[in-house]
Structure formats: C-alpha cells, structure tokens
Amino acid sequence: MSNNHQENQKQTILKMLTEKSVMKQDVFSNTIDTFNAIKDCIKLKADDLNNELKDIDNRVQIQFKDTNAQAAQLKVAGDVLEFYMHTNVFEFDKSHPMFKTGYIKNNELNSYCGIINIYNFLSDSFKYNRLNDLGYLIARIFINREKKFFIETRTQIGYKYANFSTEPINSEIISDIINEFIIFSISFDLFTPPFDAVKQVSVLEIQEKASSSALRTGKRLGYSSGSNNSSSFINDDFNL
C-alpha cells in the first residue's frame, strides 16, 4: 500500500474530525447550555408561582428538583414535568421535511441536533413509588450547532416552533415554551379507564395494589384512540 494512499486516508480522517466531530461537540455544548437555561427557568417559575399561591391555597405547590446534570423535575400540583437531556447528537433521516428547507440545503451540518425530552407524569407516581405508572412524552426540543432549535410536540405550541428558528434559543423563548408545557400538563386530565379493562383482578394484584407499587396509572389509561386528540397521545414513533 503506497504512502500516498495512507496520506490521503489520514487527510480524510483529519477532515472528518475537523468538520463533523467538532460540529458534534458544538451541538453538545449548545444542548447543555440550553438545558441549564431550562433548569434556571423552571426554578424561577417554581419560586414565583409559589409566592402567588401561598395566599390562595397552601395545598397547591410548585416544586423544582435538580435531579442531575441530565435531568430535572418541575412538580406542578398533581403533575410532574420531567426534563431529560440526551447525551448524544442525532441526525435525521433524509426523508425528514427539514431537508427541503434552504437552511439545511445550504449546510447539512445544521441538521445535526441534541435533544431535550419533556415528559408528563402524575406526581403521585413518584410520591407512592408506583414504578409501573406511565409518563407521556409531550415534546422534544432539538438544538443544533448554531443554537437554533425546533420542537416536536402535540401541545398547542407546536405550530409556533415547528421549524428551525431564525435566531438562537434564548431565555425569553424558553420561558414561553415552559409556560405552554405547564398549561398543557394542568389541562391534560386523568381519565377513568374503561370498566371492562379493570373488571377482573387476582388476589396477588389486589394485594400489590394495596401497597400502591403495582397500580399502573396514566392520564389516558385504557384509551388508545378517540375523538379527543390527547386520548391518542402515545405513539411508538414519537419516543426516542
């Protein structure tokens, strides 16, 4: 094998490291910065809302929990919003609509993104350690190397941030997004499961239910389709 061939291989490797690997480091750094800004935002909102609520009803509480570098919680009365930052950088399938936009056509490196997932749980699921309970993915925030972003979501805010932003994400935008997620979680109610889905129970199940650990509960338990958009919320393709 000639020295020229190996030198060409070396230059190819260096080019890929310079372009792609450095880009992914930029994406990761932007995702961390955005996630930390989200943490700051939800902590401020918890403090502010609690100050407003203390003279209304002290049973209703808003709590912020900084779980670790990749996760944080915002408890809003009977709901928990779980924010989880993925540590990897993702590319989209070439069939994704973003590849038809001028922004990506001008530079496909702009399509690589970090992801922050937001899930909605019942606060009692954590309080009573109900490990079988369901959480619902309500949104994914995608951030690229230029700190521009878009959101996949089935909340009302979806239309507003469905495409890559023209400006980098900032604290004002984050505040707007978090407000919408809080409004959605409060509006997204717990439905009673269909009678036929729970009409039989074994001795073991009822004993486990008495301890709360095996009682599987979710906001749309037993409902997989229907006229209510939220009742068909879970979709395997929506999770990552």
What can you tell me about this protein's structure?
This protein has 240 residues and is an alpha+beta fold. The chain has one domain. 36% of the residues lie in helices and 18% in strands. It contains 5 helices and 6 strands, in the order αβββαβαββαα. It has a 6-stranded antiparallel β-sheet. A hairpin with a 2-residue loop joins β1 (62-68) and β2. The longest helix is centred in the first third of the chain and has 51 residues, at 3-53. It is elongated and about 75 Å long.
Summarize it.
With 240 residues, this protein is of the alpha+beta class.
Counted beta strands:
6
Low-confidence stretches: 221-240
What overall form do the CA principal axes indicate? elongated
**How much helix is in the residues?**
25-40%
Question: How much of the residues is beta strand, in percent?
Answer: 15-25%
Rg over C-alpha atoms, rounded to the nearest angstrom: 22 Å
One letter per element, helices H and strands E, the order comes to HEEEHEHEEHH
Q: Distance between termini? A: 43 Å
- Strand arrangement within the widest β-sheet reads 1-2-3-4-5-6
Question: DSSP helix count?
Answer: 5
**Main beta sheet, described?**
6 strands, antiparallel
Q: Name the quaternary structure.
A: single chain
Number of domains: 1
Average the pLDDT over all residues and give the rounded result: 82
- Give the structural class: alpha+beta
